[in-house]
Amino acid sequence: MNTTIETILNHRSIRKFQDRPLSDEQISLLVKAAQAASTSSNIQAYSIIGVKNPETKQKLAELAGNQSYVAHNGHFFVFCADLYRHEKAGEMEKQEVTESIESTEKFMVAIIDAALAAQNTAIAAESMGLGICYIGGLRNNLPEVSSVLKTPDRVIPLFGMTIGYPDQNPDVKPRLPFNHVYFEDHYDTGEQYEEQLKEYNETVSAYYNERTDGRRSDTWTGQMAQMLAHPQRMYMKEFVQKKGFNNK
Amino acid sequence: MNTTIETILNHRSIRKFQDRPLSDEQISLLVKAAQAASTSSNIQAYSIIGVKNPETKQKLAELAGNQSYVAHNGHFFVFCADLYRHEKAGEMEKQEVTESIESTEKFMVAIIDAALAAQNTAIAAESMGLGICYIGGLRNNLPEVSSVLKTPDRVIPLFGMTIGYPDQNPDVKPRLPFNHVYFEDHYDTGEQYEEQLKEYNETVSAYYNERTDGRRSDTWTGQMAQMLAHPQRMYMKEFVQKKGFNNK
């Protein structure tokens, strides 16, 4: 166990920050960390927008479902899937690249690239004693978020990340049982599968029970079924296609 | 600058490994690191398959385009988007979750979750002195890869990761200019955009030139246009939809 792995294992999302902005040096180091991540065939199919303007932050906080920590933090990053520069590369080189750029394959590549870069930023930030929280809530309203951030076609904001000096110290949340997530040699849907989910339900229940003096005792399958029974963001398919992704 | 950030900035893909398997303790720690990553609303929409069987590794190496380091390394992980356990949760809780599970939104969530987990594994491995390489080549033939790994519907292998003790010491590859990837407050497609790509072309050219005694002088836009002019993996849209993703 080294300090990097300790940092990784100690991750908790931080949703309350001190009123203390990150320095430009810190921001620059976090972006460089993002850029150091692996990228499929060096395609670098992502961009990062750092939001400093308080009005823009406030607007994004509202669009993300009134999450105040989107406005109040040390810095707010938005990670985007980006194939705009690749369309440009095609133009510069007089090659027809649309078919490729609009493929589901490249949609996946751009999402993976952006996520790998983001996670580097997250780990780098946490190693500096900062806290982070991913903001998937930006996807509640991507047409508006895109317009606020002026992203062109071929660019989709995927999620935000609030970063800052923590003003809270939440617990690490228990994850699914190791053997439910990790398989050897092949996937296995045998009878242990449902047992593991029930085991995790008990773990999650105990976690909430302890933290709420028994007022809350959710299970994981209960939380998931409840969430998934109410489909969210069903505009997404049409939206990403309109932006030039996931069409072919 | 701390050791974690040094590890992150020093990333190079390693494609040649010593003949020395990872220990079960190392593997377990790398999976725990993966599980510690952020996940959208605790959905944990990914699974990891660790491949130990030499025949399976050989088969996957061939399917990934005869990349020998997929067979010869310290360990080989496959990261999968996984909404199978969420379908199960729906059944256990007698809730209808198909519409949600089959949405483009949840397809994105599962890809992001898997990528964040994978990057934690990558950084943890590198912090232990190991080298890694992502294997997107698995997506050359996902129907066969899925069958080898016995993944059910609602599970898609996204990419592999070779890990092991490095037997080479490649250079760190130069990335796109900082200001081309990082924007403040909003995206900007102004005239600097193409200039930055030209600047990067010179950097990339110089990089190859130096390393090949002038035999190679690719540019980035040239590489990208060439790659994208030949659409790859165009079966993907139909494949992921058949597996129950990205339908709604």
TrEMBL record, chains A, B:
Pfam families in the cross-refs: Nitroreductase
Full protein name: Oxygen-insensitive NADPH nitroreductase
Positions of the Nitroreductase domain: 8-165
Similarity annotation: Belongs to the flavin oxidoreductase frp family.
InterPro entries attached to this UniProt entry: Flavin_OxRdtase_Frp (IPR016446), Nitroreductase (IPR029479), Nitroreductase-like (IPR000415)
Signal sequence region: none
UniProt entry keywords in alphabetical sequence: Flavoprotein, FMN, NADP, Oxidoreductase
